[in-house]
Amino acid sequence: MNQTVAVTGATGFIGKYIIDNLLARGFHVRALTRTARAHVNDNLTWVRGSLEDTHSLSELVAGASAVVHCAGQVRGHKEEIFTRCNVDGSLRLMQAAKESGFCQRFLFISSLAARHPENSPGTQIPNTSPNNG
């Protein structure tokens, strides 16, 4: 199989399983990472970058027939950081996938905790939150 799948959140809990599963099925995987990674498999290419870096996102999705997006902030950050990553970063990735001209499928995996910081475990909800009461 010569299909390439781009993956974000590749070093996270779910992302590691996604990559292992794709590699076991013969896919080529291009995975986004914030830090340099060792070469471990001929079918796995690490792309250094972030959801804020449009150049790295373009490199990530170039030639990929599918994108699996499971990266995001889920705890310990202010709402503007959640928005910058979980909304703006996701939109940048979608735009890069669209502009690549190759992407036929885009799978967005998220959780309620990625919606707002007040939904994260251990975070105190301020009285001013519109979700409070």
UniProtKB/TrEMBL annotation:
InterPro entries: ComplexI_NDUFA9_subunit, Epimerase_deHydtase, NAD(P)-bd_dom_sf. Residues 5-114 form the NAD-dependent epimerase/dehydratase domain. Pfam families: Epimerase. It comes from the Bacteria. GO terms for molecular function: protein-containing complex binding. This is Putative epimerase. It comes from Escherichia coli.
